[in-house]
Structures are given as C-alpha cells and as structure tokens.
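ingest -> fold -> write
write: protein_1
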Amino acid sequence: DRTRPDYSMVDTTTYEAAGYVIVQQTLFDKLTVNGGLRLEYNETFGTEWVPQIGLAYRPTQEAVIKASVSKGFRSPTIRELYMWGMGNLNLKPERMLNYELSLGHTFLDGLLSAELTGYIADGSNMIAVLPIEGKPTNVNIGEFNNKGVELSLKWYATKNLELQGNYSYLHMDEPVMYAPEQQA
C-alpha cells in the first residue's frame, strides 16, 4: 500500500518538460484546418505524444461549425501523489480521447455572439478524491465516459463593456467531487 495516510512532510522534486507545435491553414476560403502535437516528459511517467486536429467551416460570415479530436494526457501532480493524508503513490496518468463539435453564430453586426458546444471524453485513470476507509484519498477511477454541452453568449453592450454568460451541463458515468453536473 503506497497511500500516504500520515501527515509527515515530504521533500521531493519532479522534473517535467513539454513542447508544443501547431499548424493552421485556411483552405477553400471557408475551411480552416489545424493540427497540433505536444510532447510531454515526466521523469516518473515517461514521454507521451499528445496530438490534436480540428476543422472550422464558415458557411456564412456570421456562422461557424467547428469539430476537433484530441488526445488528453495528465500526469499526477506532486500534491496528488504526496499531499498529507490524501496522497497516493500508486496513481497513474490520466489518458483520454476528446471529441468536440460546436456551432457558433454572430448577430446584430457582431455585437452579439452565441456558441453551442457538445463534447465526449473517453478515457482511463481519471484522478478523483474518494473516501477510502473514511478518509479522502486521491485514486484513479478506471475507465470513464463523460458527455456534456456548453452554451456561451457574448454581448458587446458598448465599446468598453462586454457581457458574457455561460451554461454547462456535464454527465459523468462516475460523478466525482469538484465536477458539478451543471454550472452557470
């Protein structure tokens, strides 16, 4: 058992580094393609390639349809591994595939904009805080499939005043702390 039930101090260092490159190209005047590649290095968990590709299509000047697919990767933080009473040295990195589709539109000569986005995240090893033997502990929760939608509104009320609103709904197969089902 490599959980840290005690409250002793830990003096540790973790080395991480990452680099990212993105390429974006407009094709056929209405279609933009972008691709990115991130290389992450963590001395404990090794090297991970994290790719992303996206498309944006503008059928009119006011409307845009966007789609993307990306890989997600996150190593456990020092806090998640070693935090007093909650740390867990058995944690594995989170991995996922994200799929996203959004529809955006501007109104009133660009003074008002709205965007509706739907997404799916399929992954493994999500790190969550769960009660283990009555104590909150960081654990990997295994496979997960999260789905959600977001609605964003933006209004340029004056030259110097911008108002924004956002609503999101998240459905998680296994709900975890700090991830509300609805936010506004």
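write: protein_2
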Amino acid sequence: MTEAAINPPPPPPPGSIARRLIYVAWWAIVAGFLVQLLVLGATLVARGSIPGTELMADFGSGISWSVLVCGGIALGTAAASPSETVMGGLGLLFAPIAFAVAKGVQQGIQTMLDAPTSQITSVTWTIGAIKAVEFAVLGALVAVLLKRAKVKAWAFVGLGLLLGVLFGGMILTVMATQTAGETPALVGTGVNEILFPAACALILYGASRAGKQVRALARNAGNREAVA
C-alpha cells in the first residue's frame, strides 16, 4: 500500500464543507470496510464457509451506506455549535436515502455476478424505517456531546454501541420473526448493526474536533498578523 492510501487526508480548513465531507468520507470508507471484515469473520464462524458471491455485494452495500449516512450527518458538524435538531434531521433524511442506495448497489453487484438478487419486501422497508429513527437519534445525541467541552472519544463510541444494541436488537427481531432468517445471516447483521453506529459516531467526533483545531489555528494566525 502507498503512503497516500495509509494516511488520511488533512483536516478541512474552516468553512470548507466539501473538504470536511471528503475527510468524513475517507474515514467512512475505512470504517465500512473494517466493519464488513468483522461481519465476514462472524458469518464465516457461524456458517463454516466463505459466503462467495455475497461477499462483494455486501462490501459494496456496506461501504456505500457508511459513506452516505455518515457524510450526510456530518453536514451538521460544519457549524461552530452543532444543532441537535439539524443533525437529528440530517440523520432522519440521509439514513433512508443511504439505505436505498446501499440496497441498489447490492442488487447491482448481484446482477453483475449472476447471483440471486435480494428481494425488496415489507421487512426491508421496516428495517429502513428503524434505521431512519436510529440515525436521527444518533445525530441528535452526537450534537449534544459535541457541545460539551471535555467530552472524550469513548463517550461517542459508547453512545454508538448503546444505540446499536437497542436498534440492532429491533432489526434482528424483525428478521428473525418475519423472515425466518438463517443463523449466519443474523450473526453477521448483529455484528454490523452494533459496531457501525459506534464507528459513525467516532467519525463525526473526529470531524468536528479536526474542524475546531483548524479554526483555532486560523484565529491564532489572524491574531499574529493583526499584531504584526
């Protein structure tokens, strides 16, 4: 791997929403990839075999979902003081959009590989609705934490894990009761639903912190120029 592939892009300068989104998108891709690796490992243990053509479809779906939902909520971190209403609203808006795009990517890859295509059913829409509420709550609570001066990264991870357990449990219940889902699929989904909200919350914390640091550096530079 090259140095460019290992090192993330530099933090965005003040007021640059586009660069902030690039910063978030880079980490969202990394998070989506790592979570999918963990999902693959859990599924492999539960199933005892590699999922085959499902692997590429799941990776494509997971990464597209990660980038869109985290990037959408990250728009709310551009303000110096993030709003709970704005970030919650962005989560409510972008979660279903990201979910629909992820499903489209999954079906597109499955079609290209001549694999069985995942069907869109009432259960799919139910899960999408649960995710919309989940990431609305995540966005709002992340905004609350971002306003606290001494909050640490672990608080965001804990928040994400808590929401992942709560809403992930709902999703697993829907899958188990309405689709008679196989154990490997349920295990993989459980890992994904618990870990990803924590990863997304941590990414949002990192984006906001980087923005604050760069704004502080810009103010200091401006003060030095004024004195000079």
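write: annotation protein_2
The first helix runs from residue 3 to 6.
Residues 13-215 form one domain.
pipeline exit 0
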